[in-house]
Fold Helix-turn-helix domain-containing protein.
Amino acid sequence: MIHRALNICSTYESLAIEFENIRQIGFHNGYSKSFIDTRIGTGLTKFLNPSVTNTSVNMEEEKKKMYIEVPYTGATTKPFTKQLARISEKLRPDLDVRFYAKPPPPVQIHFNTKDPVPKHLQSNVVYSVKCAHCDDFYVGETERQIIRRLWEHGAPKSLFQTNIISLDETNNSLNEENNNIQIENTQVRKMGQHVHKTMRQRATPYPTSENRTEVTIRKSRRPTANNQSTPPFSFIYTGSAISRHINETNHTIDWEHFKLVWRDGNHHKLLTKESLVIQAYQPQLNRTTHSSPMYIFPEGLPQNLIPDPQINH
């Protein structure tokens, strides 16, 4: 009530009347006259001399805060931090030293508990492959295991075969397992029980003569001199710039020493990183300049900000 009276009253007469009302309210509530007058005096002193309080506040604000990490050792940590706080307050009163406890790091961070993934089995990467006979190279990206993508480019099936299981055998075992599951499901349904199972067929990891796409291109049927239309022709299309380079130059690709340039688990970011590498280094075997629209970096980035596709990262 005293604070409100000091802020609202605009004249000394109104302030004196308000103080008298506060005294009457205090008397009716059992407060002594000395206590009320002391509170009124304290309020007037703070109101008329604000510099005293502001100076103390400014001194506290000027103190530089310092945070110190203390290892957590159980119940003894709290009294230990209190002792450190008293010592720091005596030695450096100009500092506001604050201690916080943190548990020690786990032992696992000092040891590698997982086997490293081989380079050819890593996924979600931007990679580069170089020609063994010239300086031409290719930059691409894949979300699958990189060995599968190299097989699609035309790499031999024997590449890294000693380090991986034959995928043909894996597919055969999966097909046998799926067939057994289908037979069991059929028998269960005949007994009146409904079992819902989802089975996913594994895609063939590399192109063969059986699964390559045969594209037939027909020319326009304009009549010739003999009033005969041009017959259609077909060719095998693999969709790989590396395969086209091999067919045109009879060069071989250094498949074994491919490079891992960048990685990212987000598909859109992975496409953006591939586009940045292509724009920065202009690989000769790439037929496209970018894989996704370059809204943020339409002109690309300088090479000092992009990983070198000729070096493993």
Q: What stands out?
A: The CA atoms of residues 271 and 291 lie 6 Å apart.
